[in-house]
Every structure is written in structure tokens, then in C-alpha cells.
Amino acid sequence: MNYGERIAVRSRREFELMREAGRHVAEILLKLREIAKPGVSGSELEELASREIQERGLHSSFKGYSPGGLPPYPAVLCVSVNEEIVHGIPGSREMREGDILSLDFGVNCNGFHGDSAVTVPIGKVSGEAARLIETTRDALYEAVSVMVPGRRLSDIGHAVQARAEADGFSVVRQFVGHGIGRQMHEPPQVPNYGRPGRGPRLQSGMVFAIEPMVNAGTERVQMLDDEWTAITEDRRLSAHFEHTVAITEDGPEVLTKIDGSH
Ligand code: MF3
Ligand code: CO
Q1: Is residue 262 part of a domain?
Q2: Bridge partner list, 190
Q3: Is residue 1 part of a domain?
């Protein structure tokens, strides 16, 4: 890991603004979950997300985003189904009973970003799918629990990996969590694996987006021709959970969580 870059520490005022961004993301994701049923299409989910952004006077963190020469991301929402790991582009395909659907969503509110993702079952899903979802969420919260001042950055990824592998699943290496603030992606990168006790010490005021991607089979990734959608090499299932989390003197504060959230 390159730990050279500076990690921002937020002021009280900035913290307030990030809370607001996080709350919008949480509220909109809950609305999306409500319509995530058999028959709903990615485009319908995108439309709802886009309308909410407009009505609330927000900006999308995702739409037009173009890191390292990739084509600009064309939507405000990522919709990744079954073997799709992340960055699935919403389209006309309809959800079917037994699918698992990852919704990843971010907004810019008053100059600060919030970023969160959840994987939901569509109707009744297989035992393996249900366990994968539960483990991935648990892995996220294992990571959140070590986000206290004085711990080290690599403790986060270690916590994710330990939980995922204990349950017989694998963690994706190719995509990582990230610092978040005025930019959606800020230093540091936050891998979902690694040895504990490495890297910078966590300080009160740092805010990270923690986003484990956990696979039922191999951790290996393949990219689709759209240059965005990542899928599992073995086409087995993948789940993704994400929260924007602030480190405070009183412990971790999950900025993208409200009542009823993941
Ligand atoms: N949570 C994802 C990430 O941090 C969302 C990015 S979607 C993109 O990578 F389109 F904006 F890239
Ligand atoms: Co993210």
C-alpha cells in the first residue's frame, strides 16, 4: 500500500455537511429497496434515484465520473445483479425471484459526498445467497467496529477478510474502499484484506467509505466490454455493502445509516 498521501481530518462544520450528505444517501437507498422486487428494472431504479436527486437539489457523485480514462459513468446508480460485483450499469433487464441485487449510490450535497451500497434479495433466494449477503454485511460492521482513534488503517481490511473467509467466502482485491469528503475518492485506499497493525493511525475526524465485496467462489474479477461492470470470473454470486463512516472520539459514526438501513 502507498500510505504517502495525506488523509483529511474534518472540522465540526464539515462533519455536519457530511452527515447531511449521508442522510440523503440513506433515505434514497431505502426508497430504492422498497421497489426492489421481481419485475423491477435497473432503469426504473435509476429513474427513482435520479428523481430524488433532483427533488432534493443534490448532485450525483457517480454520473459522468471518469477515472483514469474510463468512459464517463452513465448513471446515478450502480445496479449489480448476481455474478456482477460492482459498477453494473442500470438497464432494461428486470429483476427475477432469486436474484441478489446490489445497489450502490452516492450524492454530493453542499460540496461533500456520501457513498453507500446494499445487497438485497429479490423474493426468496438460495441458502448460499442469503448467507453471502449476511456475511458481507457482518464483514462491513466488523470493519466499522475497529474504526476508532489509535487503531491502524490495515486493521479495517483485516477485519473484513477475517469475517468473510471464516464463513468460507473470498474478498475481492481489485476494488477498495476509500477516503471520502469533497471528492468521492480521496486518500487513503482501504483494501478489504490484509495483515493488521499496518499503515497510518486512525484519527478522530477522518471519514472513509468502507465497501467489502465478497464472492461465493473465486475472488478473481473479469470486466465486461462496457468497461465498468465487474463480474466474478467463475460467475458465482457476489455481494457488496458500503457505508460512509466517520471516526470520532466517541467511536465510529455511520453517516449513511438511518432507521431501517442496512
Ligand atoms: N461505491 C463505488 C466506488 O466507490 C461507486 C463508484 S461508481 C462510479 O467505487 F461510477 F462513480 F464510479
Ligand atoms: Co465507494
Answers
A1: no
A2: 177
A3: no
261 domain-assigned: no
Question: β-strands 177-179, 186-190: how paired?
Answer: antiparallel
Which ligand 1 atom sits nearest the alpha carbon of residue 87? 7
For CA atoms 224, 227, 229, 232, give the dihedral sign: positive
Measured in Å, residue 219 CA sits from the centre of ligand 1 at: 19
Domain CATH number, residue 79: 3.90.230.10
50/2: higher pLDDT: 50
The verdict on pTM exceeding 0.90 is yes
Q: Are 92 and 43 in contact (CB under 8 A)?
A: yes
Tell me which residue range forms the domain holding 66: 12-254
* Residue 31: other Cβ atoms inside 10 A: 14
Distance CA 129, CA 245 (A): 26
In a domain? residue 260: no
Q: Is 74 strand, coil or helix?
A: coil
Query: How far does residue 40's CA lie from ligand 2's centre (Å)?
Result: 24
**Across all residues in the chain, what is the average pLDDT?**
98
Q: Please state, in angstroms and rounded to a whole number, the distance separating the CA atoms of residues 193 and 159.
A: 8
